[in-house]
Specification:
Helices cover 44% and strands 19% of the residues. Strand 1, helix 1 and strand 2 form a beta-alpha-beta unit. With 168 residues, it is of the alpha/beta class. The structure holds adenosine-5'-diphosphate (ADP). The site of adenosine-5'-diphosphate has 19 residues, from helix 1 and strand 4.
Length: 168
């Protein structure tokens, strides 16, 4: 890896990947040369999609977008501390999306504590886009369970997989 190469780490649950995540990801491709997307496995939540399904979903959606933006992409799974994962990946920048005050309060606390543990890791928070900032994976799952239309909130292949999952 070249010394001057900028690497970023975008962690999340991606259960499922939404248009809100895509917005943050596409903007991140412009900020770094290498983006590692981390699917967290120990968030204390029971996921709807398995790690393997989410990994496949992210690979399918993100590989062509990253290629177009000329950004190297790696999709990984991780557990344990975010800052430890970032260090192991040789990444100095963590990227998060901010939708609202609740996201801000959570991130501000996390950033402060992470900073004490690992001052060398910087966190940047991107303000959610105006067209996608209201989307949450949790609400999308709830809408799908109630047989609502999820297509406005998801990439079309993800919406298809979610509808299939609900039919299982
Ligand atoms: P987590 O379980 O860490 O909240 P998510 O998959 O929900 O994982 O989100 C990963 C990251 O993407 C977080 O920084 C979150 O705030 C951000 N994010 C989620 N949905 C949106 C959205 N609609 N717009 C912008 N950022 C978002």
């Amino acid at each position: 890896m070249a010394e001057s190469m900028k690497s970023g780490f975008y962690p999340g649950s991606f259960d499922p990947l939404t248009n809100g995540h895509i917005d943050i990801l596409e903007r991140s491709f412009q900020l770094v040369d290498r983006l590692v997307v981390g699917i967290g496995t120990s968030a204390g939540k029971t996921p709807l999609f398995t790690i393997e399904e989410r990994h496949a979903m992210l690979t399918e959606e993100l590989s062509p977008r990253a290629k177009k933006a000329n950004c190297a992409i790696e999709i990984i799974t991780f557990d344990g501390l975010l800052v430890d994962a970032a260090k192991n990946l040789n990444v100095q920048l963590i990227i998060r999306g901010l939708r609202n005050g609740a996201d801000f309060d959570y991130e501000a606390q996390m950033i402060a504590m992470n900073r004490i543990m690992s001052p060398e890791i910087e966190v940047i928070c991107l303000a959610a886009g105006p067209d996608t900032g209201f989307i949450s994976s949790t609400l999308v799952r709830q809408i799908a369970r109630m047989k609502g239309d999820v297509t406005p909130f998801l990439p079309s292949a993800v919406a298809k997989k979610l509808i299939e999952k609900m039919a299982e």
